[in-house]
Structures are given as C-alpha cells and as structure tokens.
Amino acid sequence: MKISVIKGWVGVCLLLPGLAACGTSEPAPSRSTAATRPSDAVVDTCGTTLRVSEPPKRAIALEQNATEIMLSLGLADRMAGASYQTDPVLPALAADYKKVPVLADRYANHEATLAKEPDFLYSTLASAYADEAAGPRAGWKHLDVPAYLSVHDCENPEQSPREVRFDAIFDEIEDIATIFGVRQRGEKVVAGLQARLDRAVHAIPDGIDADLMWYYSGTTTPYIAGHGGLPSTVGELAGLDNAFDDIPQKWPEGNWEDIAERDPEVIVLADLTRGGKGDSAEAKKKFLRSHPVTSRLRAVRENRFIVVPGSAMDPSVRSVSLVEELSKGLAELYG
C-alpha cells in the first residue's frame, strides 16, 4: 500500500522579546528580553540554542552535506571555507563550489578552522566537532562563534530523533536559511524538494508486495539498513517492508547467513564513490554473484537489484534522489 506524502514541515521560529504585564502596564524585564533582539535569528540545535545577531559572512561548512545545503541556498559568497568532500559535488553546485576555499581533504583541525576567522560553523555530522577535528561546539561558543549541528547526529544520541524523516531535513534547510537571512530561498529550495519527493512517491507502481534489503557497504561484514534510518523511511513511503526493520539500529552489522535465511526479494545497492573494496554497486553485484551463500539469494538469482547513490542515504539535500532512484528501479522491476 502506497503511503501518500504530506507536507509537514514548519518554518523555523524566530523568538521575539516577550511582553509580560505581570500586574503593571510596563513590560517586565527578563533575561530572554535582554538577550534577544528582534533581528536575532534563534534556532535550537542538539540541545543548544543559537542566537545569531546578524547573517554570517565568514561561515565554514565542515563536511560535504553542510556544504551542499549552503550552496543550494546561494551562500557561496558567505563561505570562508569547506572541507571533507566525499563525493563529486552535485553538478548544479559545482561552479559555486569552486569559489569556496577548501581547508582540508578530510576534516580541518581546530587551528586551520580558527585561522579562517569564522563567524559560523555548520556540520551535519557530530564527528566534525571532535577534538581532532574542528573542536567541540562548547569551545566555539566561548569564542562567540555559533556552531550548528544537524539533529540527525547529535553528540548525545538521545537528542536525535529515532527515525529520520524528510520533515526534519527540510526543517534544517529552513534553519540555515533563517540564520543567513534568506528565508525565501529556503522556502524555495524546500518547495522544490517536496515537489520532487511527491512525484517520486506517486510514480511507484501500486500493488508491489516485496521486502527490501538496503546494502550499504562491506563484504566480509555487510552493513545493512535497520530501523530508523532514511532507507527505512523511504521504504515506508513506498509502501514496502525493510527486511531488517526489526533491528533497532540504523546501520547494523549483518551476516550473510542471516541474510540468506531472510532471503529478501529485492536488494538495494548503495553506489559509493570512495573507492573501497565492495563500495561501488558493480563491485557489490560481482561479490553477491560469486559468494557461495549470497549467490543463492533469490534477488541475486533473479537479478533484482536497484542501484541508488550511496551519498543519498544520509540526511541531506541529496536525500530526495534516494526516493527518485528507488521509484525508477521499482518501475523497471515491476512496472
């Protein structure tokens, strides 16, 4: 059964000074009133409230997902640097990306980041704020540099939602647009992604009864999608079961004997560009067809593979393409 997509995201709140009578005709002074001006952008990020008094001019995106969200919002001229490119930048963003200084192939360390005199830091991954990377957000707060972290990868996992939803991805884009004073751009980007998401879901053939195995990486020890990650949500939108949705981890380690016992009908292959063993979709197919256990899987015997970009499996501006490629693959198999 296909699940219809409902636009559920809401705009980012801007906190304005409260006016409390408190028994008098004058506003009662408060710490929140004194600390927040009407022009401040105020957003919550993984248990931290960021107040940005004016749009940043020297922002640093600490990894590629953050970089691409900023570039999608037309913020290349506000970026003092970017780092950790894992994939070729989206073609539509490549020209703007060339305008941004690249600080490091992987994470820039604290000294290299500080040397750029940033007025805002942004990452979708908590690892960017590790001691050996840019350094903890609390340290940047002491330097009066706001540091934003995606809700999908909070330092404290309890502060992250148990399931990745497109609403939260769109909210994050809205957050960044609000911080940089380009809310209309944010609304336009989100509206475009929402329209693509709706089209992709509606293009999925009806009446498909199949379970999917989302195979991300690894040959000796395969990493597959469990419950709560983006693949689980995308399968739900498509009306299809995740063969390993009973495992309460987003990316658990699997084993081929268990996979053979469950024998999923369709295998969704992450096509990764990083060049490791078994990373590309073609390498995964070759392995699955040659391994004595996996070669007997019905999905392998019947060539029921769907290839999706591995970079789209993380919450980002690329995530809608995961639904688009799944929709296209299902149409080819079942249309």
UniProtKB/TrEMBL annotation:
Keyword field contains Signal:
yes
UniProt keyword annotation of Nucleus present: no
Using the record's annotation, list all stretches that form the Fe/B12 periplasmic-binding domain: 58-335
Identify this protein by name: Fe/B12 periplasmic-binding domain-containing protein
Q: State the family named in the UniProt similarity comment for this chain.
A: Belongs to the bacterial solute-binding protein 8 family.
- Secretion signal span: 1-20
Alphabetically ordered keywords of this record: Signal
Pfam families the UniProt entry points to = Peripla_BP_2
Query: What's the source species' lineage?
Result: Bacteria, Bacillati, Actinomycetota, Actinomycetes, Kitasatosporales
Q: Sorted alphabetically, which SUPFAM superfamilies does this protein's record hold? A: Helical backbone' metal receptor
Q: Give the domain of life.
A: Bacteria
